[in-house]
Amino acid sequence: MAKKKPERKRITNKRASHDYFLEDSLLAGIMLTGAETKSLRMGHGHLQGAYVTEKDGALWLINATINGAQGIPISEDDQTRTRKLLLKKSEIDKLIMNKKQGNTIIPIEIIPVGRYIKVRIALGRGKKNYDKRQTLKARDETRQINRALKSS
Asked: 127: which DSSP letter?
């Protein structure tokens, strides 16, 4: 009987859809050390407060935290270091052009894909407070409708 591979954990940015209107998304590679890769496969990290910026024609992931796991030491300085994102030149140019138009590039989730670690990034426009309230109101209404349909 074939061995089942352990399920790899995705790390998501739950605040992204709350704070931004998300548009196009892309999968990007990320430059990591061996300890960071091992730690992310175990699910030790988060994207709260992380963002993507452009510097010298490359995209960089800033403020993403990767914590060390048991037996995997990662120093305090290296936990939130800037990490380079790996994309094609045409994709980078498209994202930079959209960023200049006022959109933000947001990391949505970190996904282990085979032997690689990928980051899903998306273009987003910031929501105002009234937009956030409307989103919450619509979500509550759909929950109430689903409960009513389920109970009857």
From this structure: P
Q: 11-151 has which CATH code?
A: 2.40.280.10
% helix, strand, coil for the chain, step of 5: 35, 35, 30
Give per-residue pLDDT as tens, 1-58.
Answer: 566 666 668 888 888 887 888 888 999 999 988 888 888 888 888 898 888 999 998 9
- pTM to 2 decimals? 0.79
Q: Which amino acid is at 69?
A: A
Neighbours of 50 (CB within 10 A): 22
DSSP of 116-136: EEEEEEEEEEEPPHHHHHHHH
Domain boundaries, the chain: 11-151
